[in-house]
Design a protein that fits this description.
The protein is of the alpha/beta class. Helix content is 39%, strand content 18%. The strands form 4 sheets. Strands 6-7-5-4-3-2-1-16 form an 8-stranded mixed sheet. A 7-stranded mixed sheet has the order 15-14-11-10-9-8-17, covered by helices on one side. It has a 4-stranded parallel sheet with strand order 20-19-18-21. Helix 7 crosses helix 8 and helix 18 crosses helix 19. The longest helix is centred in the C-terminal third of the chain and has 23 residues, at 456-478. The N and C termini lie far apart (75 Å).
């Protein structure tokens, strides 16, 4: 029995934050050394940060990454550590994992498969490394092996699958297994999406089973570069069994998950497998031999402990609460902002944003403790004297209700109730006079009286826009971020006022649909995150029909009357945008899903969606940065491209009208 202690570290890195990134790497290495870990896997591109975008193509960035690598490598004495960075070879840039062994660079394995879909643009900066190719690279007079290689470190063979390499059918682990590799390291930068951790666990487990290896997977954690959230999965599997898994959505700068693995057991498993045939014809120069002596290990009991919420029926609600809260915390501290301002309306969207900010404090303090939480906000002196969570929320969050003559007591009471329940600062501004001054000014200069009969949209929009300056002013006075409150369903059809409710430096819920958001608020009202409980004050929000409350009260304005039922809207959006169906196909699909509505109603809604979608791309282009949470994102900068100017599906909608006219009347 040859026991080795292996580890996977998760890191909260920031693009181009060289010193902070290095400090996290070194801290993880030191903790691994304290635990007698011999082999440590760190996340992909952990030195530079994964989200450097076009800065990857800067020669200065590449040189600095190498300098930091040289500073870290001596600190790996007595250990084997993978370190990720961009590396230039023959005028092409590669995403590589450097294996440092006992304080020296053993070589570089280059990523073979690049992620170029969804929010990933790796082929814009990097080249895929060709199968079976190995070269020598010379840096500062020293020669190192680079390419499709693996390592024999003191008799233990170590290979790599770098993030996307493990997501493809022809994954490198197949060849590594045939070459007798014992341990596969997977340094990743795999963004969070609902349910994605299940897929990761599947390929980690299957890799360990099918390849007969010990599989070590590490990921980033937190909001690294602005839009993508990383949940910090750290997984260690052996012989098809998960033997260690780290916590997700941690507020810490780094975390370490480790486990004992038995080299002899894995090798014998392969020996007993009838389908396993080693590749005895492979070239021998793809294996880099490095002497290394492993620390002796004694057997110990091991078990995987996941928090109860990960197995609950409310796992999506839990993930949303924890992912967005963590993303908001990192966005705030990395931008050195002093909290948030929310223009709270008494409705669902602004209540959700406000609660997520309050949960940010609860989750962070619960994990880190008061002192460590405040230390991460050391640039913000006013919060350092807060004695408890409620005081922290008050100093980090201001909610401002801005009323006009069209606002009602119900929404005011709901807004005030939510703000008081979560401990936020609450302000009430009466902006009706401001709105009327705008109307009088324009009426005088245009020599016409504005009315709801002729100027409905303009009169609604000016109220929403008149709220933005005071909200921005309050944010500026507090040194805070103004958080926009628009959701994805509104973004799809442009049901938002540019420079009004879309105003802000961050748009926390722009990646989530309204139907889920309403379900989430009901869950938060009655159940809430495990260990924290519900927020009953949300009842006053949840019992209301969503409304912009911009028309006179006598109009009885509701969002769904203006648009369509939200469940229909979200279903049309998924079919049209995510699944790329034509208007005719969408109509037919909706008729099977929503049999309670007539053909004419569905025609109206499908046509309305496609027309509004096409007309409002310019709005989506201007939204504040939002967070990615699923494969239905509409963010044109990272996920869903659509022309600002288009034909608007005119021919397709005409054909749909003709089709509906021919349907039998019911």
């Amino acid at each position: 029995m040859q026991l080795l202690h292996v580890g996977a570290a998760v890191l909260n890195q920031t693009p181009l934050a060289w010193d902070a990134n290095q400090a996290n790497v070194v801290a993880a290495i030191e903790e691994a050394r304290r635990r007698n870990v011999s082999i440590l896997c760190l996340p992909e591109l952990c030195i530079s940060g994964y989200g450097c975008e076009d800065a990857f193509l800067s020669s200065g960035v590449q040189r600095m990454a190498w300098r930091v690598l040289e500073e870290i490598v001596p600190q790996t004495h007595g250990m084997i550590v993978s370190l990720g960075l961009p590396l230039l070879y023959q005028n092409a840039l590669y995403d590589v994992a450097c294996l440092a062994v006992d304080g020296r660079i053993a070589g570089f394995t280059a990523k073979r498969y690049l992620a170029g879909d969804g929010i990933h643009y790796e082929p814009r900066w990097f080249k895929p490394w060709p199968l079976g190719r190995r070269v020598q690279i010379v840096v500062d007079g020293h020669e190192y092996p680079l390419g499709d290689i693996y390592f024999d470190c003191g008799g233990v063979r170590i290979g790599f699958e770098i993030c996307e390499d493990a997501w493809v059918a022809n994954r490198p682990g197949i060849e590594l297994s045939q070459r007798g590799v014992d341990v596969i390291l997977n340094p990743s930068a795999s963004h969070f999406a609902f349910g994605k951790t299940i897929i990761r666990e599947r390929f980690v487990l299957e890799g360990s089973r099918a390849f007969g290896v010990h599989y070590v997977y590490s990921n980033l954690v937190g909001n690294e570069a602005g839009r993508a959230i990383y949940d910090g999965d750290a997984l260690i599997a052996s012989a098809g069994k998960m033997i260690a898994a780290g916590p997700r959505f941690s507020f810490a700068q780094w975390g370490l998950t480790s486990a004992l693995v038995d080299m002899d057991a894995a090798r014998l498993t392969r020996a007993r497998t009838g389908s396993f045939t080693p590749d005895l014809t492979a070239v021998t120069d793809d294996c880099i031999h490095v002497p290394f002596t492993y620390l002796p290990c004694e057997p110990m009991a091991q078990s995987v402990q996941r928090p109860a919420w990960e197995n609950s029926v409310d796992v999506k609600e839990e993930e949303f609460a924890r992912a967005i809260s963590l993303a908001l915390f990192d966005y705030m501290r990395k931008s050195r902002s002093r909290g948030f301002v929310v223009s709270i309306s008494g409705g669902a969207d602004s209540a959700a944003v406000s609660c997520l900010i309050a949960l940010m404090v609860k989750f962070g303090v619960a994990e880190l403790g008061r002192e460590a939480f405040l230390t991460k906000l050391s640039y913000f002196p006013e919060i350092q004297t807060a004695d408890n969570e409620r005081e922290m929320v008050q100093r980090l969050l201001a909610c401002v209700y801005q009323s006009t003559r069209n606002s009602g007591e119900v929404t005011l009471a709901a807004a005030r109730g939510v703000a008081e329940a979560i401990g936020a600062d609450f302000f009430q501004f009466d902006i009706d006079r401001v709105v009327q001054e705008y109307l009088d000014l324009v009426s005088q200069k245009t020599n016409r009286t504005l009315s709801w009969k002729t100027d409905d949209l303009a009169l609604q929009n000016i109220q929403a826009r008149a709220r933005a300056p005071s909200a921005w002013l309050l944010a500026n006075l507090r040194g805070a971020l103004l958080a926009s409150t628009s959701n994805r369903s509104e973004a799809a059809v442009g049901y938002a006022t540019m420079d009004g409710d879309t105003s802000g430096g961050i748009s926390p819920i722009a990646g989530i649909d309204k139907a889920f958001l309403r379900r989430w608020l009901l869950w938060l009202e009655t159940i809430g995150p495990q260990g924290f409980g519900p927020i009953p004050a949300l009842h006053a929000v949840n019992v209301q029909a969503p409304t912009a409350e911009l028309r006179p009260p006598s109009a009885g304005q509701t969002d769904e009357a203006d648009l369509m039922p939200y469940d229909v809207l979200d279903a049309i959006e998924r079919a049209a945008i995510r699944d790329k169906h034509s208007p005719m196909e969408v109509f037919k699909l909706m008729r099977t899903q929503f049999v309670q509505y007539s053909a004419q109603e569905m025609l109206t809604w499908v046509e309305r969606f496609f027309r509004l979608w096409s007309r409002n791309q310019w709005k989506r282009e201007r939204y504040a940065p939002s967070f990615h949470v699923d494969d239905e994102n509409l963010d044109p900068k990272t996920w869903c491209r659509f022309p600002i100017l288009s034909g608007g599906y005119e021919r397709e909608l005409t054909e749909l009208h003709q089709f509906v006219l021919k349907l039998p009347k019911t």
